Amino acid sequence: MNISVVGTGYVGLVTGVGLSEINHNVTCVDTNPQKVDLMSKGRSPIYEPGLEELMEKNIKLGRLRFTTEHKGAFNNSDVIYIAVGTPDNEDGTANLTYINQVIDVIANSITEDKIIVTKSTVPVGTNHLIMKKLNEKLPNHIKVEVVSNPEFLREGSAIEDIFHGDRIVIGADNQLASEIIREINKPYNIPIFETDIRSAEMIKYASNAFLATKISFINEIANICEKVEANVEEVALGMGMDSRVGNQFLRAGIGYGGSCFPKDTKALKKIAENVDYDFKLLSSVIEFNNRQQRKLLDQAINDFGTLKGKTVGILGVAFKPNTDDIREASSLVIIRDLIKMGAKVKVYDPVAIDNAKKELPIEVEYKNTALDAINNTDLVFILTEWDEFKSIPLECFTDSMLTPNVYDGRNCFDLENVKNSGINYCSIGRKYIKNQKVKL
Ligand code: UDX
């Protein structure tokens, strides 16, 4: 099948590469010529394990190409995938500016009937709006059918997810369009769920909101565990053995971040508000996550009295490991506040430093190794569970910090090992190990 994919962000690029790998002829379209040049050479603008290898392979095989020319790409394709961003507006609603721009370009470009597949996460009802707008703008003899095909891939494991996801959701009003999209996806060998357009749109928001709720739930349990001297990791293991609960997304930590959960939870709350429904549970999930992101910072302020003038090491800026994405990461909240308070902040992340430099205050110092970031510090925050951090010998903290106070937002170390290490170790939902007096 000949396919174009508009937008080469996370979703668009991985979608295009995935479709080319299962033997479709794919043209990815983006308005940014530098990005198109880079991708045409098999280089990915985002850090995603395994992605460049597949880009290079499929470009070589002639199944994958990149262009800034919408018109040519669309007219050589049977199906057009829309994968442009839908960032959040100030009020939490999804911003559809890019979607509207694509609608105009499609309307001005295509010369025959097409199937339009929406990969972007859009509010319920948007696909019908896209279909209506396109059919109004196009001459009478050209018709489009719109199919909702939400994306569930996770950053950092996008390649694994695209070929081994749990399901592919296809929402369509038109039987033939649904069948064509099912055929396109068949080689993935992943269960396909066909439904109506609005339900498909809702599945995406409901799934992300549910997962965010699950994380906030275990984080609240963690906070209670600390007070009743239980261990959240044991609790999560015991809960997860019940297949109705499921053992995934029960890792307690300093809150969720990233490009999807914060945005999609807010957007779903707005979708509910627009139909006069107060989604109270989701509102608490969002508010609680904002508090959880600051939890260890508040604990450290409480321990030290003030962090003004303290030297603080930060291990991890990315919102999770195996990505350079820092959008809505808990690290941003903590680092910005530390700088405001007058602390000296030294930051290390294996891949996200370039992105951090664009976002964080200029006072932040960047280090090339984890050890450089913790050297001569009063306290350290671990904010991303990179494997590299989990394997830091605990003596490094005692040997190189001024006072070894470690605030671990991702439970990277085993409590048994920490007990005799000499460090003060505050993690999430587990006993606070105090080996030394905090030096003020
Ligand atoms: C998420 C969804 O998983 C994916 O299906 C959707 O397409 C996009 O949004 P992503 O944002 O890439 O994917 O990452 P994910 O692995 O889901 O993690 C999101 C956030 O939740 C991260 O900040 C992570 O640290 C946090 N998290 C995840 C936890 O705190 N605990 C967990 O148990 C799992």
From TrEMBL:
Keywords: NAD, Oxidoreductase. The keyword NAD applies. Pfam families: UDPG_MGDP_dh, UDPG_MGDP_dh_C, UDPG_MGDP_dh_N. Transmembrane segments: none annotated. Its EC number is 1.1.1.22. Residues 313-415 form the UDP-glucose/GDP-mannose dehydrogenase C-terminal domain. PANTHER family: UDP-GLUCOSE 6-DEHYDROGENASE TUAD, UDP-GLUCOSE 6-DEHYDROGENASE YWQF. This is UDP-glucose 6-dehydrogenase.
